[in-house]
Records
---
Amino acid sequence: MFDYEDADELTKFAKQIEDLIHRKQYAQLRDLLLPLEAADIALLMMESEEQILPLVFRLLPKELAAEVFVELDSDQQEMLIQGFSNVELKEVLDELYLDDTVDIVEEMPANVVKRILRHSDPDTRKSINEILKYPEDSAGSIMTTEFVDLKASMTVEDAFKRIRRTGPDKETINISYVTDAGRHLLGLVSIRTLLFADDSEIIEDIMETNLVSVTTLDDQETVAMALSKYDFLALPVVDTENRLVGIVTVDDAIDVLQEETTEDIAKMAAMAPSDKPYLKTGVFETWKARTPWLMILMLSATFTGIILTKFEDSLAACAILTSFIPMLSGTGGNSGTQASTAVIRALSLGEVRFGDLPKVLWKEFRVSIICGICLAAANFVKMMLIDRWMMQNPDVTPLVALVVCATLVGTVLCAKLVGCSLPILAEKVGFDPAVMASPFISTIVDSLSLLVYFRFATLILHI
Amino acid sequence: MFDYEDADELTKFAKQIEDLIHRKQYAQLRDLLLPLEAADIALLMMESEEQILPLVFRLLPKELAAEVFVELDSDQQEMLIQGFSNVELKEVLDELYLDDTVDIVEEMPANVVKRILRHSDPDTRKSINEILKYPEDSAGSIMTTEFVDLKASMTVEDAFKRIRRTGPDKETINISYVTDAGRHLLGLVSIRTLLFADDSEIIEDIMETNLVSVTTLDDQETVAMALSKYDFLALPVVDTENRLVGIVTVDDAIDVLQEETTEDIAKMAAMAPSDKPYLKTGVFETWKARTPWLMILMLSATFTGIILTKFEDSLAACAILTSFIPMLSGTGGNSGTQASTAVIRALSLGEVRFGDLPKVLWKEFRVSIICGICLAAANFVKMMLIDRWMMQNPDVTPLVALVVCATLVGTVLCAKLVGCSLPILAEKVGFDPAVMASPFISTIVDSLSLLVYFRFATLILHI
């Protein structure tokens, strides 16, 4: 097992492979690779020179080769497929699980897809085409149709026979699903239940009938959250008439959770989400994902500019006020970010819902008052001690400090209230709450804090 | 299955339960709850009045009651335990899996822990005490010691007999572990392999010996990432002498991944991470988690203040420059946030390592140049069209626009380079890269962008 942080070990291993290939010591190479997990061999292949991939691939036993194939990047998969003979392609496809084949097909260019479909057996081809019809990110698009199905009238002995006969091609045998003649989902039975039952017991009597299922069109995130919430190993997927069409297994659910979190984090940082790893995303693609929001946020900062221009005279009358603007808007932005981030994560974990808005507001109100007062007190001391006394700046009068500190409390209050409510409101009207994160809120809070600042300045300093 | 977003359904159901209790219709209540999943009953209990919990709990069959118990908040668990008779406590404890008992014990006050340990059977008590010894967030602290172990010399038939005999108390029977007389881990065998093997085959011949294992002191995140990477259902945990001491199952790995992500997100928003849900965290606790970073960031904004004071004369000579400061620092902050967030996530997914720093810098350099030029162009047009022509502000000259736009390019460049490199450097020296996220970087970038701004202003406007 390669540690993520231990790049040295990986590079050393990759060098060793290249070395063995150059010296044509294929038997040793095979012995070196065989004890590794497929995911690790794939990692090694991504570290090595590209041209060795087909060679290594052909050295591995068929089953392991197919497992490695699934773990590779789509670029490398395409390169391999392009180099495969028809017989080789068919062999690899026969070893793959259906949901993995679909994942690969989704990433390939049209000519490769055609070739894959031509060399899949007719049943698989039909299933691939079925799954490809479901919308992206739906339960249907991530499910596999390779599950064990049983009949309610079977005995446990029959069930074991069926599992032994059909199981080898199935993604999991840990859970079997019980359907009627019309393929409607009636229940499920785990391998554990089967093992602890008598051979003569009837499936109907031991199956679990309180089922949690999802429909083909449910969002993949809903499916993943359900698997995580109930600690299931697989979840049945039914169509609108409760006919069982597939299952989603827990390993795919983990991938979905990771992927959705990465998307959320990207959106929270004002970027369009990408489904490629950071280093695999091209410069142009990264630029495309980042510029639109930067542009929108830059142009919306026009408002803060207008406010500043409007109060140009006040600032001229008391120039020292300008030097505290970055601190005020920074603190406002950070306070807002804290509230919005906490609420966005709570929303995505299902801990907070729209009905909780008053509770959330009341909590953030109290937090922001204590936070604001603490910060204001610290800031007052700092302005008097450092700015006035140590840096000998006579412009920093106690009254100026009072204006700045009062603004701090007001800014933190505004920032936290805006920060906690916008994501909840966004979700209610069907927007993605993650977009309401820090950059967006900072822009709003910037304007608000300036307005508060000049209000207090006018009131206290009479300018 | 309750949808996370569908709060109405949940509230309606909770009301129905309270109603049945007030009318003392316990049989109906039991029928209403029985078809539900334990996680959903727990969700309902958290929505309902607190005093009905013990009543509902006693209505449920023992096994389901124990499952619900595990899903409750620690506050509610404590309340229930306080109300349990000794016999009841023992019954619940007997139904719990060991790792769940440990999780509960970790959250309870000392007197409750003592009571739990007193009523656990001696073997369980010993195991609990063992697991409690491991450091928080280590593999040892999240593992369970309830796994199926086999001997290499057993036949498949023997193995099935052992699984049937010892399995009912085990967390999973999907994978069995093969150990020698000294409890050293030799291999593993899945229930699938056992089912497809002949009864007379010897475990040694069919077991998987290329093992991925973790040690008790490995970080829980390493364990979870390994389970996710290799698509395993469980991972063996060994001590320093390769003796098998426990296993971590995939459901716990999902919880760890979610928890660690929540922590990362909190840190990225300049908050101390909390392991409680948002609404369960008290005002004081939230304040404590948020104030320190706000304070540090506020005080570090002193530098920007000093820079502004230093250039007070330049600003007085060309007052319009002030009004673009928020836009510049906002854009700088946002650009930096994008780069740092993308890199932090890539680090935590293992996609980027220290050795990739030059690649990352080169990528961000190119992205920032294109981004900067686009933003500068848009901003030039906006300043000329809106600020000068529409708002009729004669102070916005093409030369001023040039200063602002040149600063934009410089700021975006600085921000992206600082943003992408700080998290990588932080990880290298052993700090948490998540802390290097937006708020921290904004503060640095603010100062840099002001310096660039006044440099260009001096150069171009000769002030």
---
Amino acid sequence: MTTLLHIDASPRGERSLSRRLSDRFVEAWRAHRPSDTVIARDVGRNPPPITTELWIGSVFTAEDERTDEQRDAIKVSDELIAELERADLIVLGTPMYNYGMPAALKAWFDNVIRIGKTFSFDLERGDYPLEPIMTGKTLVILSSRGEFGFGPGGVREDMNHLETHIRTCARYLGVEHTHLIAIDYQEFGDERHERSIEEAYAAVPQLVEQLQSSRRSTPATVTSGRG
Amino acid sequence: MTTLLHIDASPRGERSLSRRLSDRFVEAWRAHRPSDTVIARDVGRNPPPITTELWIGSVFTAEDERTDEQRDAIKVSDELIAELERADLIVLGTPMYNYGMPAALKAWFDNVIRIGKTFSFDLERGDYPLEPIMTGKTLVILSSRGEFGFGPGGVREDMNHLETHIRTCARYLGVEHTHLIAIDYQEFGDERHERSIEEAYAAVPQLVEQLQSSRRSTPATVTSGRG
């Protein structure tokens, strides 16, 4: 049994390409694993609150010493982290907004990356005092980008602050493996965009099969076949 | 006469190191230029609304065809862009949050990077259809970071998605020159942190002098002296 956390970060509904990708992923997953649990979290349409000074004060206060006001300030953070704790696989649909995460997705990360919950801090570790608390999660990023050339060696590689940033943050959520499927050229609306959509749509069921296959062979020895 | 746009992105008040830096910068500026205008925009304590599907629909609708609802949805964006248009120098105090911008600052960028206002889009330009509309602005980033080694060649260079991302976005606001002063080691609270604070505090008036000196010699020929 696998638990999926399905996050969408686009403020758009029907018109969102990243939503179409994440929906396809979850449908393809469920086609073979109908009894797996899917937790849906729509941060695009219901953004988590942006963290405040009260939030910061609360997370740095021992749990049994928090005031009611402090407890209230981190209620959403508690919920979001509880969802994350249950998840084996995070399926994240997100557009690239101004070369990075939409603010709503960053608000999600700012709520879930939390001392004592998702990471521990110990100066005895020297210059690298932070360590994730959770382990073994897989992250699938399903993205849509207006331009192109954001991959390694691409013409806009240096302007890509989306999945590079997500990967950096995801480590502190216990993510150990990350996969990316992206649609490009949205602003051009040309043949390259159509081809990019087709390729992404084709890649989704392939990735589902690959992940389900590796999960079937876990925790037993991984075989070279598809289990 | 120079107009400064002073933005703070920290949700903290007195305890914010990036606020202390930006306050010092503005004070040092005013000490020599008391009649320059300073526009203050506190996104940390009053985050702009996160952009919605209605916002997107509105900015892609011709101005004279927008409904009242659409006009309302971009009212804050209009205000923020008007502030930006007036500014020659953007003074941005921001902490590094989870290796990037606080969500509130990303919400500011998502509101101000807007078609027809801060950038134009033309497919006749080929593979690079976006161009900034404004020109000649200078950006000063005053930052505070919990860890260290985020600069070129540093041990956490690959984890820095803050000023790298800000620089990418700032181009579309008409920013042509960017300066960075950052305090490091905040989480360590050790001597290195104290030294980093001292160095940053010393760098602020130096940068103010450098910028005021180059402004004095603009638009006339730039001289090698301090004008």
